[in-house]
Amino acid sequence: MEYMSNKKEIQFNILSKKSTTHGAYHTGTINLNNLSSVLVEGDKAKIDLGLIHAKSAVERGIKFTSNEDEVTTGTLYWVVWVAVDRNEQGPYYAGVTACPMRIDREKRVGWKNLAFHVNRMDDALKRRIKVAEMGEVEKAALKELLINHNEEMWANSKTELKEQLSSQK
């Protein structure tokens, strides 16, 4: 497996010691300080922080629809939300969730379920692991990226993450 090329190395966002939310004033806001995003396309995975605000390179110039039947051709991508935290052993991948997105670059159209993406982002922030829907090739690419990015963080991560990303063959 290979990684998508990156001009510069991008790192996962690490949780800061200070919170930016204060009581009821920011109620309803999501603190994205410890959230990163990964784009998986087949056997390639790369950190792409542009996904957080729907401004990744693959999304630019694409008109999105919520009707999956309108985009039956094109490339299937997986947007993976990764929340990082610290435990007694050190930093680890605390929440990892995936959601699909299909883009037909030739037709300049794409499909994604925005509510599902937001819910999965929230799940990652709540330290949940939800990557079981991904294909085996995509899981292997994500697992390789997470391990190669930081073996210590992978070692410190929940068994649930490791089991969901393990090959089911």
From TrEMBL:
It holds the Pfam family YwhD. InterPro entries: YwhD. This is YwhD family protein.
